[in-house]
Amino acid sequence: MFYEPKNGHGLPHNPFNAVVTPRPIGWISTRGADGRDNLAPYSFFNAVAYVPPQVMFASTSTKPDREGTKDSVANIRDTDVFAVNIVEYAARDVMNQTSGAWGREKDEFALAGITKAECETINCPRVADAPATLECKLTQILQLPGEANFTVFGEVTGVHLRDNCLVDGKFDVTRFEPLTRLGYRDYSVVREVFSLQRPDD
């Protein structure tokens, strides 16, 4: 089949995010100007540059108490910092608990029983036992076409790696099994890896 998104897809459910899969999940932690902490997962997330290391995530919906965006973007606008926590399969249920549209006064760390730690280079909380956390300083927020579509870019200023995920000097994803987002309400998990050598190596 072929369809033009502007004319609709004619299917029971939108297939777009089932096509672009699997997607890593950025579990974004922030602290508001009022000192309240927030934690929420975003599957429009990725690394975008090596030097300096940079990441992005996109927020595509709103909350009534956040004037056209969500808690994460609103907090980052106020403080210019955020942390990206990597989600392991074992944390799937608590991650899902933090995805609710909770009020801005709700601390999702406490709500889901997640142990919190402080970042080193920024004033922001992080998931204490995450396989990895990237501490980030905001570089820019871009408003994309459409209602409430914002992309947040940050420069990584600190990296936490859980010791048991390091094997022979490499960060081994099979030690924690990254959770990935598919389409609809579906997820997957990385349990096997293989290598390919580039033809010019």
Automatic annotation (TrEMBL):
<dbReference type="GO" id="GO:0016646">
    <property type="term" value="F:oxidoreductase activity, acting on the CH-NH group of donors, NAD or NADP as acceptor"/>
</dbReference>
<dbReference type="GO" id="GO:0010181">
    <property type="term" value="F:FMN binding"/>
</dbReference>
<dbReference type="Pfam" id="PF01613">
    <property type="entry name" value="Flavin_Reduct"/>
</dbReference>
<feature type="domain" description="Flavin reductase like">
    <location>
        <begin position="18"/>
        <end position="173"/>
    </location>
</feature>
<dbReference type="InterPro" id="IPR012349">
    <property type="entry name" value="Split_barrel_FMN-bd"/>
</dbReference>
<protein>
    <submittedName>
        <fullName>Flavin reductase (DIM6/NTAB) family NADH-FMN oxidoreductase RutF</fullName>
    </submittedName>
</protein>
<dbReference type="InterPro" id="IPR002563">
    <property type="entry name" value="Flavin_Rdtase-like_dom"/>
</dbReference>
